[in-house]
Amino acid sequence: GTNFGQGGEGYNGRGTLVEGAWHRIVAAYDMAANPPVVVKYVDGIKQDDWTANQGLDNPRRALLPTAILFADGDQDERREMFVNSVQIRNGRISDAEALLLGAPTPGGIPQELAQSTVTGQWDFDFADLGASIGSDLAYFDPAYDGPEGTAEDKTTFGTTTDLGIPGPGGVEAKVMRVPGTLTRQIGYIMDHRIAPNGGGTRVNQYTIVFDVFCQAVTGAASLLQASSLNNTDDGDLFWQGTNFGQGGEGYNGRGTLVEGAWHRIVAAYDMAAATPVVVKYVDGIKQDDWTANQGLDNPRRALQATAILFGDGDQDERREMWVNSIQIRAGRLTDAECALLGAPGAAGIPVSLPTSNVTGQWDFDFADLGASVGSDLLYFDPAFDGPEGTSEDKTAFGTTTDLGLPDLGGQPVKVMRIPGTLTRQLGYVMEHRIPPNGGGTRVNQYTLIMDIFAQSNSGAASLLQASSLNNTDDGDLFWQGANFGQGNEGYNGTGALTAGEWHRIVAAYNMAANPPVVVKYVDGIFQDNWTANQGLDNPRRALQPTAILFGDGDQDERREMWVNAIQIRSAPLSPAEIEAIGGPSPLGIPLVIEGVAAAPDLGVSVDSSGNVTLTFTGTLESAATLGGAFTPVAGATSPLVIPAGSLAAGQFYRSAN
Hints:
This protein is mainly beta. It is built from five helices and 37 strands. Strands 4, 6, 7, 9, 13, 14, 15 and 17 form an eight-stranded antiparallel sheet that branches.
């Protein structure tokens, strides 16, 4: 019919396998699981966890050395079919991977799958508690709130239009309505499928994401009950006012969680961190690193085998809500990943996220030193330059219009003004969150990017103080004239860094390279491979745990500047990546760099007979000597098997884009 499987209870599904259309059918077998299961997907839509009639070495499920496709030995169940692609994989793929396989395409079934840590997702597309990934939700009290329950105001499903609310992103979507009745009988049991982690007996590292809408939030409204499996005590994560969290110091935020609008709420838990923390984001905007009342196996933070969504056991903090998508992930997402999740849309929460090595970003959108990614900046001397400081000329914030500056890319933007006073009391402590790398005791490999404006090119102006945490010596990176750098041969460039214009400065440090180098760009234009005065753990190049932005300890090289965005990454960007991010933009510095081909890779394996198999991306090239000319291997496609008897002595291979 419209499902697939075999035997009693083997055909459970969503009925999406219809005739007259191409479909991608996925059956992921795990006869060694407890219980044994076949996970079934059609076109990226979960059909069922098929557990009936399964078992280890079950002859109808477990494979012999070969199997026969499209065969039926009793000769009564066959049909004319057309097939574009068939694939078999060693091991059961995860639900997230099965979903990401999606619907069929002319290119066939992909061999490489996007990675995802999602273990549970619920999108309510079928007007029930069924899962898109993982286990179905279950009504906490089905006799009360289930489809046949006694509650007068029950959980309902429908489109945003049907239910009289706007759609996320202005697009109609299928949603679940959560009743606001003040009772412990309402909630949804979430089997998150995450094993205990972080060194405790509970799940200490996870990320939960909600796409949710509320008409009114008077007081608190529970989002998650973690501490009580029978929902008899207070909930553990709440929407309160315009923020979310729980308890004293738990509701710090930007106040961007407002009623009458769709929001994407992200809470990334790490109870195993050196300072246990919940990182909070709303619509891609960082709210807080919530460190109060956290700890390993904390019953209000760390998860048991299940948790209850929207449950509140003391029956006083619930609100009517509408939810379009809920997701849980094993492990804490990075700040950059939380930011990349962005705001909600009708398509639900993304299962796969692009990678980013950004560990710190500051955009000054809230007229303070708060971070968009990572740790907030700090005033080096808050008693002098902080909001209540004694300085007559202090750090200021505003729009380019307010501060009398040219717009950036034709648009007013929010910026920070940096005073030019010649004093070591000015600067901003940057905790970059990059561990020592490159083989040294300091951070030897990183990239610093600034979108910056100055009215004058006169003299030198410090951009970075790395060598002195108390800012008592000379700065270590300067804007000087129309170039930037430091020291003899450090200012080589094209002279593109001009006053009176917005510029994007990129300095990609690699003190572990041979030779050590800082690659410098302005507005996507190459300036120099700066190799003079570099070296592993060099105190003027390699970072300590913090550095001071715009600090100059000998108090002679500072200038009034304005900055729209600052970013630091945990690796040196390649020239192609730097060129791709180009010049400054009203949107700030991107977290993900688009349009850059991934570096090619090459894998080698040898079997027992001496046959060599090369797997590669890009173009396979060969040469007779390592220093010789490499030429493409004619007709080579991956994987390429080179029989043992045909191996050429001293043959070298590489892959190239």
